[in-house]
Automatic annotation (TrEMBL):
Pfam family, one: ABC_tran
Keywords for the protein's UniProt record, in alphabetical order: ATP-binding, Nucleotide-binding, Transport
GO molecular function, one term: ATP binding
InterPro entries referenced in this protein's UniProt entry, alphabetically: AAA+_ATPase, ABC_transporter-like_ATP-bd, ABC_transporter-like_CS, ABC_transporter_ATP-binding, P-loop_NTPase
PANTHER family, sorted: ABC TRANSPORTER ATP-BINDING PROTEIN (PTHR42711)
Descriptive protein name: ATP-binding cassette domain-containing protein
Residues annotated as domain ABC transporter: 5-234
Record bears the keyword NADP: no
Entry annotated with the keyword Nucleotide-binding: yes
Organism: Algicella marina
């Protein structure tokens, strides 16, 4: 697949001297969904804003559909729809007019058929005459997407599309994104949620402290990230594990009533069923069990170790 966006050696130092991006290079392929995963302050929004030409780079270049993001700003920007993190829409305007007005901002002629198609695809058509202030939070987010799509961009940026959104609505948003991809739109979304990246993306880029740590196919990355821990609470403390359990990746924790077992979520077998049976056979009585996923922070620590 050809690149639709090429970011090359991009750095951004904000006024005041803070360096938010450090020599970022990134190729975004036409038609893919790329998730940018990173903790707060990693530089995700800065990267998006710079690609969209809203923030000026300190050094480096960006090409969008072959247009330089600075020298050819208008042509580059016309290819992009941007859905910002915050909801900023005129409360008393109707849905239809809001979206139609956005199209005009890109110098495109009024085209009711396009606006209708966009609103229908986002299940907003029956709300077209409603004032924005009467919509639910989820619908307002859809209006933001509709605005971003009003000028028929080939690329859509979604900055944390599901932050603060309930589970049901999050799934809805995922469906909308999938549909857009099926229509050939290239989608870049930022997220804190591994689950979201796992669900949506073709490729995942991990960004931390202004640096891209890696960009990989989702499957390959999930294999790396797919470690979980089973924490077992025993009724009585153990000093040493019985010999019959030596085949398991099992360690005694602190206090000694705790056992830790780590396993691959992506593997065919987790070994949990056999482990629990063998614990019972060894006479160890369980009080409680709990599982936990490696946190983003732990994953980053591991990635940083691996990548330096
Ligand atoms: N206009 C600005 N001036 C100075 N520093 C800024 C400015 N905008 C962002 N920063 C800093 O740059 C860093 C990266 O911010 P950015 O918003 O890109 O992160 P992010 O990954 O999008 O975070 P979040 O997940 O919280 O949205 C942060 O430390 C932030 O404080």
């Amino acid at each position: 697949m050809a690149s639709i966006i090429s970011v090359s050696d991009l750095s951004k130092v904000y006024e005041g001297g803070f360096q938010a991006l450090k020599n970022v290079s990134l190729e975004i392929k036409e038609g893919e969904i790329l998730a940018l995963l990173g903790p707060n302050g990693a530089g995700k929004t800065t990267l998006i804003s710079t690609i969209c030409g809203i923030t000026l780079p300190t050094s480096g270049t960006i090409s969008v559909g072959g247009f330089d993001s600075q020298d050819d700003f208008r042509n580059a920007r016309a290819l992009i729809g941007l859905v910002p993190q915050e909801i900023t829409i005129e409360p008393f305007e109707t849905v239809f007019n809001t979206v139609s007005f956005s199209r005009g901002l890109f110098g495109k002629n009024r085209n009711n058929a396009v606006i209708e198609k966009v609103l229908r695809s986002l299940s907003l058509w029956d709300k077209k005459d409603n004032q924005i202030r009467t919509l639910s939070g989820g619908m307002k987010r859809r209006v933001l997407i509709a605005k971003a799509l009003s000028h028929e961009p080939r690329i859509l940026f979604l900055d944390e599309p599901t932050a603060g959104v309930d589970v049901e609505l999050r799934k809805d948003m995922w469906e909308v994104v999938r549909q857009l991809r099926a229509e050939g739109v290239t989608i870049i979304l930022t997220t804190h949620y591994i689950e979201e990246a796992e669900e949506m993306a073709d490729r995942v880029g991990v960004i931390n402290h202004g640096e891209i740590l890696l960009v990989e196919d989702k499957q390959a990355l999930m294999q790396k990230l797919g470690q979980k821990q089973l924490q077992i609470e025993l009724q009585e403390p153990v000093e040493k594990l019985p010999e019959s359990l030596s085949g398991y990746r099992l360690t005694v924790g602190e206090p000694k009533t705790q056992l830790h077992y780590s396993y691959e979520t992506t593997g065919e077998r987790t070994g949990i069923t056999a482990l629990l049976a063998d614990l019972a056979n060894a006479g160890l009585r369980l009080k409680d069990i709990e599982t936990r996923q490696s946190s983003l922070e732990e994953i980053f620590v591991n990635l940083v170790k691996e990548n330096r």
